[in-house]
Amino acid sequence: MYDVVIPAQNEEKSILAVLATVLKLPIKRVILVLNGCTDRTLDLTRTILDQRIHTIYFAEPLGIDVPRAIGALYARSLHTQGVLFVDGDTSGDIYDGLAKLLAALADGTDIALTNCYPYITHRAKLANLVLRFRGSLNKELGYFQLLGNATPTHGPHALSAKALEVLMPEAIAIPPLTLVLAKRFDLKVKVATSIRHQDLKSPRKHRRHARLIAETIIGDCVMGLTLARNEEVTRSLGKHKMLGYHPERRFDILQLWTESLITTHSYCENHLIIPRDTPWLGGYS
Q1: What whole-number distance in Å separates Cα of residue 32 and Cα of residue 79?
Q2: Which residue among 50, 66, 133, 271 is least packed, with the fewest CB closer than 10 Å?
Q3: Is 155 part of any domain?
Q4: Domain Glycosyltransferase 2-like: where (predicted)?
Q5: Tell me, what's the pLDDT at 117?
Q6: SS (H, E, C) 172-185
């Protein structure tokens, strides 16, 4: 069966709704990756007495996308058949879309994506710029006719056990690199569902956040383009380095987590809150 990974930082307003949706799916585990929470997110999740919920808790923020990789590695250590990623702030009624992503894994897809822009609508200049870079990477990889502008960066998506085995943790933490490696390892990629961005019900953030997110995604896509072309990997566009939130990604913790899972080191156990009487096996086969 499959697992769901939910990264969350200060999502007390949405986390219960997200859990209510994913717990209806035919899944083995829900892996919460709580990081840098200063609100009631952890307390609220512990009110749900469901044996399938495993919580990975870090007091410090891990940075954007790194919690996904943390959760994916944990699921892999438990020999999951695949992982569905759902952000902790997506409180919309998206059950049908999530079910389609799991169905795609069952049908042999390795990377199942969501099209969050199924209709042509008016978009802000910044959004159009981000989409242009997402499209450029997909065109470089020969995926554009198949995926359009869809990317693991945006919206729920899923990875098969095969994808989890071949993808580097850093590629999951920098989502566009997932597609670059998918091409390299001949993984099966498809858009499995469409969920309009507004239907995710993610809260609107301030302008500075929007700018930094855009810069992060563009920089990630630039990294993907250079990697796909076998060039020196960079985030630079001309004289400007597209950093955004990239410097806040805790690759040091991701590396420590990876090493600890392999050796069943106590570091992992110290960050785990798992259901009582549920043994944690740890380690890769």
Answers
A1: 17
A2: 50
A3: yes
A4: 4-159
A5: 81
A6: HHCCHHHHHHHHHC
User: What would the mean pLDDT of 133-151 be, rounded to a whole number?
Assistant: 96
Q: Residue 279 above 80 pLDDT?
A: no
Alpha-carbon dihedral 161, 166, 168, 171, rounded to 10 degrees: -80
In this structure, is residue 102 part of a structural domain?
A: yes
Tell me the pLDDT band of 121, cut-offs 50, 70 and 90.
low
Structure tokens at 263: 């050796």
Q: Is residue 140 part of a domain?
A: no
Note the helical H segments in the chain: 15-22, 41-45, 66-77, 95-106, 125-140, 144-147, 161-166, 169-173, 176-184, 207-228, 251-263, 266-269
User: Is residue 265 pLDDT above 80, yes or no?
Assistant: no
Q: Domain range for residue 255?
A: 2-118+149-202+250-273
Give residue 233's identity as a one-letter amino acid code. Answer: V
Work out the pLDDT band at 207, boundaries 50, 70, 90: confident
List of residues 6+ apart from 270 with CB closer than 8 A: none
Q: What integer pLDDT is reported at residue 136 of this predicted model? A: 97
CB 244 within 8 A of CB 214: yes
* Assigned domain for 278 exists: no
Looking at residue 191, which CATH number applies to its domain? 3.90.550.10
Strands lying side by side in the sheet with 111-115:
189-194, 111-115, 157-160, 82-85, 2-8, 27-35, 53-58, 272-273
Task: Check residue 282 and give its pLDDT.
Answer: 55
Q: Is 108 left (phi over 0), alpha (psi -120 to 50) or beta?
A: left
Band (pLDDT 50/70/90 cuts) for residue 285 is: very low
Residues forming a β-bridge with 8: 34
